[in-house]
């Protein structure tokens, strides 16, 4: 949200009023409180309350074959301006004129309703929370994942999910905007340029520089390339935790924690394809307080891991108006890591101010005279530097890295701001030893 705040503009607020509203989200607030702040902002800027809820808590749409195309295209449009605030959550909401309830896309919380002939709508986690004469019940049921029910107090009517969403999805030509302006990378022709692979000597230099071990290659990379899944192993862990280790460690190893043993079931985007996705996008973010066709002029990528040919297509997006700049993620021997990161951040800032839409963080220039900056440190540093300079929404980050092999490496890079990652050294090793 901090990156989006720099672009906020609305005819309902003066510039001075918007400045006084910042920050919209406060790190000291709970997630629910920050969600409430953002819903209020969207409503005060002119959207209806159900519309704001649909933007922030969308139902699953990507693989939903039963959803009509106009509603699906509306959700595609929303995905270009706002990431979903997924729960698990059951929410009740009101602005004084409308009161309603919704479930997030996972539907892991119960929400049941009873509608009576004397115009009462009772919503609770369980049926029977309030005693009702069975003869008075007109309808009862449960909210399904991603669905909504609303009571319009002003017009004295109850609206269910399909009616609400049809009204909002057809209020503007979202379908036309999406079909004219959104670009899907996998549907673009190409790549037209040759996909480059490294010689064996360069592969070994990069592996040594990035701390690759024989165990990493044999126990992680090879099983992943042969079986298409993360290897699973079990053994006693007798090594020191990362902060106490005297051996060099990958930065992502510092970003692990134990989770509480709560009742939420494990979810991953392969088993739960209906409610989760791996899609990502490249391009510029726009002002979230307005609806405009330019919002969806972005490049849609099905999954964030770029294969060599897909990465070449990203380089060729300049033909679609998405130019790129390769940022050297190395620093000279004799300089400090801090100095190298500062230089990298300044280069990212300059490129963004020059209008570059895709910044590629690459450590390929490693040599005897240049040392690699860990790409996770580089990505996080650039992300926050651009946020501080109010530039982050104007560009996307792609990581072209030799130090990315394990699933956790990808997860942390994406968590720290990368839209896509090409583990080029891993692909080169697989190619060389196929």
Describe this structure in words.
With 434 residues, the protein is of the alpha/beta class. The chain folds into two domains: 47-175, no CATH class; 186-432, Alpha-Beta Barrel (TIM Barrel). The chain has 14 helices and 16 strands. The strands form five sheets. Strands 1-2-6-7 form a four-stranded antiparallel β-sheet. The chain has a four-stranded parallel β-sheet with strand order 11-13-15-16, sandwiched between helices. Strands 4-3-5 form a three-stranded antiparallel β-sheet, with no helix packed on it. The two termini are 44 Å apart. The mean pLDDT is 91.
Rounded to the nearest angstrom, the distance between the terminal CA atoms is 44 Å
Low-confidence stretches: none
**Rg measurement, Å:** 25 Å
By DSSP, the count of extended strands is 16
Annotated CATH homologous superfamily of the largest domain: Aldolase class I
Determine the structural class based on helices, strands and strand pairing.
alpha/beta
Largest sheet: 4 strands, antiparallel
User: Per CATH, which architecture of the largest domain?
Assistant: Alpha-Beta Barrel
Put simply, the count of helices is: 14
Question: DSSP strand (E) fraction?
Answer: 15-25%
Order of helices and strands: HHHHHEEEEEEEHHEHHEEHEEHEEHEHEH
Residues in helix, %: 25-40%
Which class of the largest domain in CATH terms? Alpha Beta
Strand neighbour order, sheet with most strands? 1-2-6-7
How many separate structural domains? 2
At the fold tier of CATH, the topology name of the largest domain is: TIM Barrel
Mean pLDDT: 91
Overall outline: globular
């Amino acid at each position: 949200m901090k990156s989006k705040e720099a672009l906020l503009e609305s005819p309902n607020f003066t510039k001075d009023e918007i400045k006084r509203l910042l920050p919209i989200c406060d790190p000291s607030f709970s997630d629910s409180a920050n969600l409430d702040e953002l819903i209020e902002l969207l409503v005060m800027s002119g959207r209806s309350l159900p519309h704001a809820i649909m933007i922030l808590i969308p139902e699953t749409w990507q693989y939903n074959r039963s959803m009509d195309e106009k509603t699906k295209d509306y959700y595609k449009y929303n995905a270009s301006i706002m990431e979903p605030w997924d729960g698990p959550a059951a929410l009740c909401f009101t602005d004084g004129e409308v009161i309603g309830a919704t479930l997030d896309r996972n539907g892991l919380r119960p929400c049941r309703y009873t509608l009576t002939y004397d115009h009462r709508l009772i919503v609770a986690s369980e049926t029977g929370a309030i005693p009702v004469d069975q003869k008075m019940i007109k309808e009862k049921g449960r909210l399904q994942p991603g669905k909504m029910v609303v009571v319009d107090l002003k017009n004295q009517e109850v609206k269910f999910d399909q009616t609400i969403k049809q009204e909002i999805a057809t209020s503007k030509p979202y379908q036309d905007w999406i079909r004219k302006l959104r670009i899907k990378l996998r549907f673009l022709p190409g790549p037209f340029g040759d996909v480059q692979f490294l010689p064996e000597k360069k592969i070994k230099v990069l592996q040594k520089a990035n701390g690759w071990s024989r165990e990493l290659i044999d126990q992680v990379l090879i099983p992943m390339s042969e079986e298409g899944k993360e290897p699973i192993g079990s053994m006693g862990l007798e090594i020191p935790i990362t902060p106490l280790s005297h051996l060099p460690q990958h930065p992502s190893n510092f970003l692990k924690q134990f989770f509480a043993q709560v009742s939420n079931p494990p979810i991953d985007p392969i088993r739960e394809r209906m409610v989760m996705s791996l899609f990502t996008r490249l391009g510029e973010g726009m002002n979230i307080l307005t609806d405009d066709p330019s919002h969806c002029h972005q490049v849609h990528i099905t999954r964030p891991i770029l294969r060599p040919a897909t990465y070449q297509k990203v380089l060729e997006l300049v033909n679609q108006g998405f130019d790129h700049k390769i940022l050297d993620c190395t620093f000279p021997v004799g300089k400090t890591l801090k100095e190298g990161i500062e230089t990298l951040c300044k280069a990212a800032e300059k490129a963004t101010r020059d209008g570059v839409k895709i910044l590629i963080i690459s450590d390929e220039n490693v040599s005897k005279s240049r040392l690699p900056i860990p790409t996770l440190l580089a990505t996080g540093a650039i992300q926050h530097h651009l946020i501080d300079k109010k530039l982050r929404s104007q560009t996307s980050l792609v990581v072209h890295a030799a130090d990315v092999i394990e699933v956790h490496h990808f997860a942390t890079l994406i968590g720290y701001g990368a839209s896509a990652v090409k583990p080029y050294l891993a692909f080169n090793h697989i190619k060389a030893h196929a």
